[in-house]
Structures are given as C-alpha cells and as structure tokens.
Design goal:
single chain; alpha/beta; 4-stranded antiparallel β-sheet; 11 helices; 10 strands; about 25% strand; globular
C-alpha cells in the first residue's frame, strides 16, 4: 500500500496502529490497519461486503473479546491511552456502539433503555441523576419531545427510526468520546434515514463518530473523512471530498464508480 493513500491527522483522538483481527489463525478479517481519526468529525468506513469494515469497528471497543477464538493484534490509542490495557467497562464507556438494526431491550421501557448500561454494569444512580441522564440523552437525539409523555412504555412501541435514535441515546448516556455505528440506517426508510443523518451531523459537535456504511451516497453526504477497505486491508484514507473526486487507488475508483461492491 502506498503511503500517499493514507492521510495523516494532527493530534488524533483515535490512533489505530498495525491492527489485525483473525477469526482463526489463517483467516484474517482485518490485516495490519493503521489509521488516525480526527476529533469531532464523522469518519465513514466503506468497502464491499466481507472486507472487514464491521470487524474493524468492533475492535475499537473490544467487542471481539466476547468470543474466545478471535485474536486481535496491534494497538488502539484513544486520547493516547491503549484501550487494550484499560478495564473493559471503561473502554465501553468511552466508545459507544450502535448496531445495524434498532435493538432496544424489548422488556424495558424507553426510560430504562436509556440507562440500561448503568444497570447492566451495577452502577447505582439517584433518581434525580437517572432523570437528568435520560432527558439529556433523549434531547441529544431529538427524541425527547416525541416520547416525554411515554417514557415508561416499552421501547418497541416506537417506530424503527425512533428506536434507532433511542439506541443512539443509550450509547450517549454513558458520555462516550467516540460513537461507533455499524450501518445504522440500513434497516430504516428514507425519512428515518434522513433524520438519523441529520442527527449524526449535529452530534459531531460534541462527539467523534465512526460509521460503517455500504451507502456511498450517505458517506458523501455526512462524512468528513472516508476510509476504503478491501479484503481486510486499508486501501485509502482521505478527506471524503478528495476521495470521491480524486481517488488515488484504482480499487477505490472502481468501487466508487460501481464496478464492484
């Protein structure tokens, strides 16, 4: 890989260094990826199915440790601290995760969904603290006015787009520095997708957002930087405008012009 295809970031909030993830000894889903992420930006991870996008994203909050057979090598620095040397709960508080399909806990109310992370980790809060976190998090995702009179109804009572914003609120409740989103709009209709995109653009004022997307138009609309992966390798990383108008690698150009995907 040519060095010219990878942009350097001054004072990155996140620095990924020689990261590899293997599902078994001979099956590397991510191969020696090094990349830096700028604070208060949206970074899109793009590439064809099976290229390692989601695997890379999940390595950033140590989700792979839930599975014994997955091996992770390399270093991930968040504000200069190696996440693989920190307590897992601290890493998960610093890096909130939102998945492809809206997944509010079905037996919990909207209120309890927002503060679920505290309950699951045995962190006790006063009622006033819970109330403040719930309202702040729901306001952050522009959901408060829509649900403030229904806080103790099940989260599954909401529409798909509202459920996904609830899941983002759940990630924000812990006060993370980085929000990781794995194709968060792929299960949503165009109107709900537009609301989530508008939300992410607003949230980058206070958070750093890393977004896996198969939707190139979405990456072009809302991301500041784009990262193109192919067969587990980082091929190109640049400002989104530069990559879409003047890709440096032939594989990036072929992907962006629809020759494969």
């Amino acid at each position: 890989m040519s060095e010219k295809n990878i942009i350097k970031i001054k004072d990155p909030i996140l620095s990924i260094q020689n990261l590899s993830v293997a599902y078994d000894k001979n099956n590397y889903a991510v191969k020696d990826v090094s990349v830096e992420v700028k604070k208060n930006t949206v970074t899109a991870i793009m590439g064809p199915s099976g290229c390692g996008k989601s695997t890379l994203l999940r390595a950033l909050n140590r989700m792979h440790e839930l599975y014994e057979n997955i091996e992770t090598k390399g270093t991930v620095l968040l504000n200069g601290q190696d996440i693989y040397k920190l307590p897992t709960i601290r890493v998960r508080r610093m890096t909130g995760m939102v998945f492809q399909r809206p997944n509010p806990f079905p037996t919990m109310s909207i209120y309890d969904n927002v503060i679920a992370g505290y309950k699951l980790n045995g962190i006790r809060l006063k009622k006033s603290e819970k109330d403040e976190i719930v309202e702040r998090s729901l306001r952050d995702v522009v959901l408060w006015e829509e649900v403030k009179d229904s806080l103790f109804k099940k989260g599954t009572f909401l529409s798909g787009g509202q459920q996904q914003r609830l899941c983002i609120a759940r990630a924000l409740a812990f006060g993370p520095e980085v929000i990781l989103l794995d194709e968060p709009t792929s299960a949503l209709d165009p109107v709900a997708t537009s609301k989530v995109e508008d939300l992410l653009t607003k949230l980058k004022e206070n958070y750093t957002i890393i977004l896996v997307t198969h939707n190139m138009a979405q990456a072009a609309r809302i991301s500041d930087y784009s990262l193109f992966m192919y067969l587990g390798e980082l091929v190109e990383y640049d400002k989104t405008k530069n990559m879409f108008t003047n890709p440096q690698d032939k594989r990036t150009e072929e992907y962006l012009t629809g020759k494969f995907g």
